[in-house]
From TrEMBL:
Annotated protein name in UniProt: EAL domain-containing protein
GO MF term set: cyclic-guanylate-specific phosphodiesterase activity
SUPFAM superfamilies per UniProt: EAL domain-like, Nucleotide cyclase, PYP-like sensor domain (PAS domain)
Catalytic reactions on record: 3',3'-c-di-GMP + H2O = 5'-phosphoguanylyl(3'->5')guanosine + H(+)
Residues annotated as domain GGDEF: 161-296
EAL domain location: 305-557
PANTHER family documented for this protein: BIOFILM ARCHITECTURE MAINTENANCE PROTEIN MBAA (PTHR44757:SF2), DIGUANYLATE CYCLASE DGCP (PTHR44757)
Taxonomic source organism: Duganella radicis
GO biological process: cellular response to nitric oxide
CDD domains for the chain: EAL, GGDEF, PAS
Domain PAS: 13-83
């Protein structure tokens, strides 16, 4: 009786096992020692797209001949030979599936569990794309660039083969966003990305760094790295020559490109990007649509500039500024007024020239506080002069920076200072530069007219050095043209200096303005400007700028 019971039990077990294997979510394949297929569940049928009855008893490699010698083949043989389980993920090319495999060797042969993980793989690939590629352009993003750059730097340090980072910023990109909307700006960025990609080798990285900034990473440049990088940068510039087609409208765009080379030197990712970025700013400063290479002097300049900015902030708090006044004379030598010139008494560096710190103050908007202080000081002195008949008729000229002038509340600010100090508006002359007047002419005229109503006058400073347009000069309520000193100095040399002075004098007179010659240093220059018909002059010949105490002596004399 034992035999039939045993075989009945075995049959029951086999049926239970089959039921289990049929119900699990994995595909299951059982192989004998000679790779013959002994069992296959329904999931395995569906996944491999073969019919059980066609393959049972047949050799696995006969059924799937394309897998012979491939990764499945090697993995299963290894499992059997070493009698250890193997787990792996593999792409099954004939059906374009990603599979996850677990194969267990046993006395009977090999049992393989596998499943389709294509969806998970696709999700992972998508997540990877989102994490490392820019959505708009499809280029590697900053994250991936940093990773590749780190790798490139350490490789180059080891093998000595140089590479380069090209930092690319589009010139005036903001204008397309502002005038045609962000979606058009996006279209331009996509086309720029394509052109940059087309201009370099497939193995180079073109990444979107952010906004309108792109970075190209060139590796393995060989011995003449600088020349090669220069050629590639020129090619990138050229890629912008043709107009872009932004929804049927031709749009011209240019890039500014900064290049930093790397090689054996130990330099961090941050440093190399900073260098390329600095060089890019240099390219912008040189007129845009340009390539500039990093050189160490740039770094020195930038840190000097940063130091100056910090010192300037401190100077405003510590009140390290003072005003000097340069006397202005009528052409006959009579004192007509003074120009207030700011001075910075730096605790360590001594006197710092305004030519050095005014531009920094303008870039950082610190000029707003500084300019206001200058105006209050100068108007304070003007108010004190009013009580003395020897000084009551003198004019006070004050320089106004574009940043100050273009503030919407500029007029109110000047009015407030006049009121606060009690200075006479008709003795105050504000000196504006030509470039300041070029910007937003209509609003400039309105502001000037409002102050003119109070009696405040205006002069154009350094006339001739900017790009004044004669078409609007006559519309501005100006009372004085100040001829830049470079023309006065050139006038007595060979060349066109004298002719230029003559032309400016003629122009000013036609427009009913008084003419002041700047930087008169010698009696010959004075005779010249007198002969040309200038009304006033200013310069070391008459007097240098003086601190207030010395100015008082000068006035008494
Ligand atoms: N070589 C030579 N130089 C002469 C002669 N006569 C006058 N100068 C210099 O020429 C500059 C005249 O001022 P600017 O053209 O308005 O040029 C000024 C002005 O643009 C700016 N600046 C000065 N003070 C202020 C201020 O309070 N506010 C603003 N926004 N800018 C200022 O800084 C510039 C330079 O000022 P400074 O160094 O004081 O330089 C002054 C003055 O010292 C001369 O005969 N020979």
């Amino acid at each position: 009786m034992q035999g039939p019971i045993k075989s009945h039990t075995q049959a029951l077990r086999a049926a239970a096992l089959t039921a289990t294997l049929e119900s699990i979510s994995d595909a299951v394949l059982m192989l004998g020692h000679d790779w013959e297929i002994r069992y296959m569940n329904g999931n395995a049928e569906r996944l491999t797209k073969v019919k059980r009855e066609d393959v049972l008893g047949r050799n696995l490699w006969e059924v799937f001949p394309e897998s012979v010698g491939g990764p499945y083949y090697r993995a299963y043989h290894k499992a059997v030979e070493t009698n250890t389980a193997v787990t792996f993920e593999e792409h099954y090319a004939p059906l374009d599936l990603w599979t996850e495999i677990r194969a267990y060797p046993s006395e009977e042969g090999l049992t393989i569990y596998f499943r389709d993980i294509s969806e998970r793989r696709a999700r992972e690939a998508e997540n990877h794309r989102l994490a490392f590629y820019d959505k708009l352009t499809g280029l590697p993003n900053r994250q991936l660039l940093l990773d590749r750059l780190g790798h490139a730097l350490s490789l180059s340090r080891r093998n000595g083969r140089p590479g380069a980072v090209l930092f690319i910023d589009l010139d005036h990109f903001k204008s397309i966003n502002d005038t045609r909307g962000h979606d058009k700006g996006d279209l331009l960025l996509q086309q720029v990305a394509d052109r940059l990609n087309d201009a370099v080798r497939g193995c180079d990285t073109v990444a979107r760094f952010g906004g309108d900034e792109f970075v190209v990473l060139l590796e393995e440049l060989g011995t003449d790295a600088a020349a090669l990088a220069r050629d590639i940068a020129a090619k990138l510039l050229q890629a912008f020559h043709a107009p872009f087609d932004v929804e049927g409208v031709e749009h011209y765009s240019t890039p500014s490109i900064g290049v930093a080379l790397f090689g054996r030197e130990n330099v961090s990712i941050d440093d190399i990007l900073k260098r390329a970025d600095l060089a890019m700013y240099q390219a912008k400063a040189a007129g845009r649509n340009n390539v500039s290479f990093f050189d160490p002097a740039m770094e020195a300049r930038v840190s000097a500039r940063a130091e100056l900015e910090t010192d300037l902030r401190r100077a405003l708090v510590n009140k390290e500024f003072e005003l000097h006044y340069q006397p202005l004379a009528s052409i006959g030598g009579e004192l007509s007024g003074v120009e207030a010139l700011v001075r910075w008494r730096h605790p360590q560096r001594g006197m710092v020239s305004p030519a050095e710190f005014i531009p920094v103050a303008e870039e950082t908007n610190m000029i707003l506080r500084l300019g206001c202080w200058v105006l209050i000081e100068a108007c304070g002195l003007l108010a004190r002069w009013a009580g003395d008949e020897r000084t009551a008729a003198l004019d006070m000229s004050v320089n106004v920076s574009a940043v100050q002038f273009h503030r919407p509340d500029f007029v109110e600010q000047v009015m407030a200072v006049l009121k606060q100090t009690g200075a006479r508006p008709d003795r105050l002359r504000l000196e504006l530069t030509e470039s300041l007047l070029l910007n937003d002419v209509e609003s400039a005229i309105q502001k000037m007219l409002r102050l003119r109503e109070l009696g405040v006058r205006f002069a154009v400073d350094d006339f001739g050095t900017g790009y004044s347009s004669l078409s609007y000069l006559h519309r501005l309520p100006l009372s004085q043209l100040k001829i830049d000193r470079s023309f006065i100095w050139d006038a007595l040399k060979e060349g066109h200096g004298a002719a230029i002075v003559r032309m400016i004098v003629g122009l000013g007179k036609t427009l009913g303005m008084s003419i002041l010659a700047e930087g008169v240093e010698t009696p010959e220059q004075l005779s010249f400007v007198m002969a040309e018909g200038c009304h006033y002059y200013q310069g070391y010949l008459y007097s240098k700028p003086l601190p207030e105490s010395q100015l008082a002596d000068f006035l008494h004399r």
